[in-house]
């Protein structure tokens, strides 16, 4: 089992937590490692039936619990949102008596069920697929670019089985469960939008074009995209909002949450990454590494991208406290001055760039003018986790 960076932070507090993340990222494993005294898995049909018919049962059971029962884990809590009312009552009435460890894979189901999200009572955290640092010695960039970093899939030693597991994840979860989540009537339109979103991953989001290509109405496409975001399967990196916005593109970039899932959706070969996609996939990988740190692991970080209407761009703008870092990703082993045009243009516009960085596949650090050129792992070693 891989040690998750989030664990050390969660063990330092007695506050109750709600942990959200896509399926199979390891939420149950992480919460179980915190050694709950009682565990309820609402993915179990029997457990689900018990509590969906009598959500008040949780409150009566815990009022009768022995003094040694302190930590209560509820997995897939979005399946019975009414349980959160019982959690609030117990947290408010018996401060310090119970610590609740709650997990969920769909913020949409919680909202749709008018769930009480316990503001001020429960700390919200997100769990994503594995970081490179969490993989430790098992980290293999080529494997990550092809198979992604879902823990159970990455840990599978057999490459063929890993590929089969990824395709099963796509077919059983993305195409069926998310389809049900969206209350989809136009199955073909949903399937086409899903594939088109995977193909557009890493680019500027143009929902109008996606809806036209999928053959569905714009509002339908917007709703499907909202479902994918609420179930944490895609995320947006917003456009940098600096000065002189008239010449900037204001649309976000969209990314799938895992490279292996993206590749399986697009029916790419899963034993290797295609050479003509290496640059795109490497940028995806860095996007994942940065986005997965936003919030708990790196609360000072705000992440955006930069692109002008004239085509000047920088892959990532990192605002760390009062500092601004500009980051370009290059899938080459050499970096030339001609590759630095976007960084120079951004530095001139922003006027306050503290670090300009190129992440590349070469073996050693370099410095070209004011730009730091860092091998992938050197860059990641500077990131907190």
Anisotropy-based shape: globular
Radius of gyration: 22 Å
Portion in strands = 15-25%
Please count the helical segments.
17
Oligomer: single chain
Largest sheet: 6 strands, mixed
Number of domains: 2
Helix amount: 40-55%
C-alpha termini separation? 17 Å
Please give the order of strands in the largest beta sheet: 9-10-11-12-14-13
Uncertain segments: none
Q: How many strand units?
A: 14
* Overall pLDDT: 90
The secondary-structure class comes to alpha/beta
Helix and strand layout, with pairings?
Blueprint: H1 5-11, E1 16-20, H2 27-33, E2 38-41, H3 45-53, H4 56-63, E3 71-75, H5 83-93, E4 99-104, H6 107-112, E5 122-126, H7 132-135, H8 141-147, H9 151-155, H10 159-181, H11 187-200, E6 203-204, H12 207-214, H13 218-230, E7 234-237, E8 253-256, H14 259-265, H15 278-291, E9 301-307, E10 313-320, E11 323-329, H16 341-350, E12 353-360, E13 366-368, E14 371-375, H17 376-381
Parallel strand pairs: 1-4, 1-5, 2-3, 3-4, 11-12, 12-14
Antiparallel strand pairs: 6-8, 7-8, 9-10, 10-11, 13-14
Helix pairs in contact: 4-5, 8-14, 10-14, 11-12, 12-13
């Amino acid at each position: 089992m891989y040690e998750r960076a989030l664990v050390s932070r969660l063990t330092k507090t007695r506050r109750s937590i709600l942990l959200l993340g896509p399926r199979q990222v390891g939420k149950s494993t992480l919460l179980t490692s915190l050694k709950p005294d009682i565990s309820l898995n609402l993915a179990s049909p029997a457990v689900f039936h018990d509590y969906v018919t009598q959500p008040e049962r949780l409150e009566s059971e815990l009022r009768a619990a022995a003094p040694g029962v302190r930590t209560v884990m509820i997995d897939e809590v979005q399946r019975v949102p009414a349980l959160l009312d019982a959690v609030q009552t117990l947290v408010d009435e018996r401060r310090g008596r119970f610590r609740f460890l709650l997990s969920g894979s769909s913020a949409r189901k919680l909202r749709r069920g008018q769930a009480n999200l316990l503001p001020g009572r429960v700390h919200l955290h997100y769990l994503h697929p594995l970081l490179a640092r969490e993989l430790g010695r098992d980290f293999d960039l080529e494997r990550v670019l092809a198979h992604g970093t879902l823990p159970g899939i990455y840990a599978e030693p057999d490459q063929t089985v890993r590929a089969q597991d990824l395709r099963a994840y796509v077919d059983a979860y993305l195409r069926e469960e998310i389809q049900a989540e969206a209350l989809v009537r136009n199955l073909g339109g949903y399937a086409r939008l899903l594939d088109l979103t995977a193909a557009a991953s890493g680019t500027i989001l143009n929902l109008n074009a996606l809806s036209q290509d999928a053959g569905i109405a714009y509002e339908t496409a917007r709703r499907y995209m909202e479902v994918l975001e609420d179930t944490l399967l895609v995320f947006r990196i917003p456009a940098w909002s600096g000065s002189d916005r008239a010449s900037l593109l204001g649309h976000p970039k969209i990314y799938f949450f895992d490279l292996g899932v993206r590749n399986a959706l697009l029916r790419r070969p899963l034993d290797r990454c295609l050479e003509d996609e290496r640059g795109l996939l490497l940028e995806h990988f860095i996007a994942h590494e940065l986005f997965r740190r936003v919030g708990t692991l790196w609360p000072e970080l705000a992440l955006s991208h930069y692109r002008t209407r004239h085509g000047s761009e920088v892959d990532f703008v990192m605002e760390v406290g009062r500092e601004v870092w500009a980051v370009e990703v290059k899938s080459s082993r050499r970096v030339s001055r001609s590759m630095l045009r976007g960084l120079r243009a951004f530095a001139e516009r922003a006027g306050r760039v503290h670090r300009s960085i190129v992440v590349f596949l070469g073996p050693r650090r370099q410095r070209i003018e004011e730009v730091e050129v860092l091998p992938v792992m050197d860059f990641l070693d500077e990131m907190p986790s």
